[in-house]
Amino acid sequence: MSAMVSSWPTLAGAVDASRGKEAIDFALAELGRPNRILLVTPPFTEESRPYPGRSAEYPPGVRENGGQYSHGVSWFVDALAKLAVEARARGDAEESARLFERAFESWVAISPLSKLTSLHDADVYGLPPHQQPADVYEGEGYEGHGGWSWYSGAAARMLSAAYALLGLEMRDGKLILRDDSFESKGDLQLSEVLYRGELFTPRSNAAATKTKRTKNSKTSV
């Protein structure tokens, strides 16, 4: 089971929403843990065929070889958010809310936030709470141990996934908010966004969405 293989069919538009959700559901059932999400399972060995190369050189459960490899697993968040947006466009508000909630829960599971729920868990994790780790171990005897810290690539990928979840997009140098940006995503909800002196609120975003729809309807007439 692979996080990348399970999330990218949805992101690439290679499958419909039903098949995409089914793939992600199966994957998270195998790869998901309360405080991390694994990249693959089972881990590779020297006897794996086809041989994956460098990944198999790590011990089982370390980095790409069956641990949480944050870069790769964060795409689950983007894929779930995409499915949520599509469900909302179909008029299925309940399904959209469930998918957004799961996207947020996945983001938290990957982030340091889920590793610090108790003193014991924080001690096992062993990394600072403000750094997104590149990886978290899964192997026997070192489950939950944090790997590389101060890893800017993992932090940037998680930031991008958060933007996908919240519906924040830079377009032609301007910040664009999706029309659902101020709606709750599980326990997460924006109240306002301030960017370069411009304040975005639920009211202003609703007005912008209404204006956009009016322009689109006039164009289509």
Give a structural overview:
Strand 1 (32-33) and strand 2 form a beta hairpin. The chain has one domain (3-166): Glycosyltransferase, CATH 1.50.10. It is built from 8 helices and 8 strands. It is 46% helix and 10% strand. The longest helix is centred in the C-terminal third of the chain and has 19 residues, at 202-220. By secondary structure, it is mainly α. Helix 1 packs parallel to helix 4 (75-89). The chain has a two-stranded antiparallel sheet with strand order 1-2. The chain has a two-stranded antiparallel ribbon with strand order 3-4.
Blueprint of the fold:
Layout: H1 3-11, H2 17-31, E1 32-33, E2 36-37, E3 68-69, H3 70-73, H4 75-89, H5 93-110, H6 119-125, E4 135-136, H7 152-166, E5 168-171, E6 174-177, E7 193-195, E8 198-200, H8 202-220
Antiparallel strand pairs: 1-2, 3-4, 5-6, 7-8
Helix pairs in contact: 1-2, 1-4, 2-4, 4-5, 4-7, 5-7
Quick rundown:
The protein is mainly alpha-helical. The chain has helices spanning 3-11, 17-31, 70-73, 75-89, 93-110, 119-125, 152-166, 202-220, and strands at residues 32-33, 36-37, 68-69, 135-136, 168-171, 174-177, 193-195, 198-200.
Radius of gyration: 19 Å
What's the helix-strand series? HHEEEHHHHEHEEEEH
Strand content: 5-15%
Low-confidence stretches: none
The CATH architecture classification is: Alpha/alpha barrel
Q: What is the number of domains?
A: 1
Mean pLDDT: 91
Spatial order of strands in the largest sheet: 1-2
Backbone shape: globular
Can you tell me the CATH topology? Glycosyltransferase
Sheet having the most strands: 2 strands, antiparallel
Question: Total strand count, please?
Answer: 8
Helix content, binned percent: 40-55%
Structural class: mainly alpha
CATH class: Mainly Alpha
Count of alpha/pi helices: 8
Tell me the span between the first and last alpha carbons.
Answer: 48 Å
